[in-house]
């Protein structure tokens, strides 16, 4: 099954998505982050929050695009969700396939290792002693994942635990399933 | 083949778009300006919308409970009565699309999927000024969307 997922997502990436130059995207994102840093006067925690919020709003729209292109139904397990996120989601939108690892024993938490990160190309964090400790440059991804998963009834908690930009050896994004939300049912006549 | 009406319900179970045609759609329209008359968004909060939603919702739940395999979920595609047939498509994000047609019409699943990916996603989701999570009582009024649906459905 994981092989067929890969073939399908390769096909979608090649034939069914509109693409833009990745450098254009990288630099646009870069200017958004730079502007936020300026707006919040280098309060990096606020920048992280804002990026996550922007990501959330992107995610709740992106999921519809994702579903209509891939035609995937609801996943039966969180393991399958993880596969779909890394092999289809990241593949068709960013053309990367992060590794899924570090499963917790209850199967509710896993990590995505981003070997290459198109968002963070050409990036060096400012040398003010704070950014390296506080800023999660690609935090928009956290919001995107949260927003998109919430629309398919999965409430997750996501955060970065390491980033090569901060001098870590890898970029790791950790996802934790909080709960599966219930489908809404029509209001009764009472 | 005749299409009577078209409905979209959002994840909060509200009807966000409703198109009803009062006259039979001509099979081969050559003149696209003579679109069939009817009403748009006039019955979103009426009982008809709620009843239709209820019927689809319950049947979908029954279908799920009765036919669930281990590998794939059983889904409701359509049901028909003596007078009409209801075609149903639900996205994983909880949007539900429904077409009511005459009972002889077969398989409109592809049509519904097409509307979802080529019209709804392109002109509602990718339109930053349009909401994606509809508030109760709000509906799709985007003229472009309405025009595309009206152009598309008579051609099938």
UniProtKB/TrEMBL annotation, chain A:
CDD domains: TRAPPC3_bet3 (cd14942). GO terms for cellular component: endoplasmic reticulum; Golgi apparatus; TRAPP complex. Keywords: Endoplasmic reticulum, ER-Golgi transport, Golgi apparatus, Transport. The keyword Nucleotide-binding does not apply. One of its GO terms (biological process) is macroautophagy. InterPro entries: Bet3 (IPR016721), NO_sig/Golgi_transp_ligand-bd (IPR024096), TRAPP_component (IPR007194). It is found in: Endoplasmic reticulum; Golgi apparatus, cis-Golgi network. The keyword ATP-binding does not apply. It comes from the Eukaryota. Belongs to the TRAPP small subunits family. BET3 subfamily. This is Trafficking protein particle complex subunit BET3. It comes from Wickerhamomyces anomalus (strain ATCC 58044 / CBS 1984 / NCYC 433 / NRRL Y-366-8).
TrEMBL record, chain B:
GO terms for cellular component: endoplasmic reticulum; TRAPPI protein complex; TRAPPII protein complex; TRAPPIII protein complex. GO terms for molecular function: guanyl-nucleotide exchange factor activity. Keywords: Endoplasmic reticulum, ER-Golgi transport, Golgi apparatus, Transport. It is found in: Endoplasmic reticulum; Golgi apparatus, cis-Golgi network. This is Trafficking protein particle complex subunit. It comes from Wickerhamomyces anomalus (strain ATCC 58044 / CBS 1984 / NCYC 433 / NRRL Y-366-8). One of its GO terms (biological process) is endoplasmic reticulum to Golgi vesicle-mediated transport. The lineage of its organism: Eukaryota, Fungi, Dikarya, Ascomycota, Saccharomycotina. SUPFAM superfamilies: SNARE-like (SSF64356).
């Amino acid at each position: 099954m994981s092989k067929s997922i890969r073939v399908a997502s390769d096909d979608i990436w090649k034939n069914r998505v509109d693409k833009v130059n990745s450098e254009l995207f990288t630099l646009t994102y870069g200017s958004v982050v730079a502007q936020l840093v300026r707006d919040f006067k280098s309060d990096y925690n606020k920048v992280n929050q804002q990026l996550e919020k922007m990501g959330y709003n992107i995610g709740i729209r992106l999921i519809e695009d994702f579903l209509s292109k891939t035609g995937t139904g609801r996943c039966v397990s969180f393991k399958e969700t993880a596969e779909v996120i890394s092999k289809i989601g990241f593949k068709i939108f960013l053309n990367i396939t992060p590794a899924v690892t570090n499963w917790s024993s209850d199967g509710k938490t896993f990590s995505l290792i981003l070997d290459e990160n198109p968002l963070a190309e050409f990036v060096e964090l400012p040398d003010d002693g704070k950014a390296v400790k506080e800023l999660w440059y690609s935090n928009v991804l956290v919001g995107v994942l949260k927003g998109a998963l919430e629309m398919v009834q999965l409430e997750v908690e996501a955060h970065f635990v390491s980033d090569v930009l901060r001098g870590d050896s890898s970029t790791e994004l950790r996802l934790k399933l909080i709960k599966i939300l219930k489908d809404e049912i029509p209001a009764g006549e009472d | 083949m005749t299409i009577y009406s078209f409905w979209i319900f959002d994840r909060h179970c509200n009807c966000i778009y409703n198109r009803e045609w009062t006259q039979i759609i001509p099979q081969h329209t050559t003149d696209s300006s003579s679109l069939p008359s009817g009403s748009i968004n006039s019955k979103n909060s009426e009982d008809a919308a709620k009843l239709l939603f209820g019927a689809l919702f319950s049947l979908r739940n029954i279908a799920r409970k009765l036919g669930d395999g281990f590998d794939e979920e059983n889904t409701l595609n359509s049901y028909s009565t003596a007078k009409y047939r209801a075609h149903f498509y639900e996205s994983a994000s909880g949007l539900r699309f429904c077409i009511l047609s005459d009972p002889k019409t077969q398989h409109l699943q592809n049509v519904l999927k097409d509307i979802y990916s080529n019209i709804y996603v392109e002109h509602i989701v990718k339109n930053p000024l349009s909401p994606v999570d509809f508030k109760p009582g709000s509906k799709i009024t985007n003229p472009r969307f309405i025009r595309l649906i009206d152009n598309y459905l008579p051609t099938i």
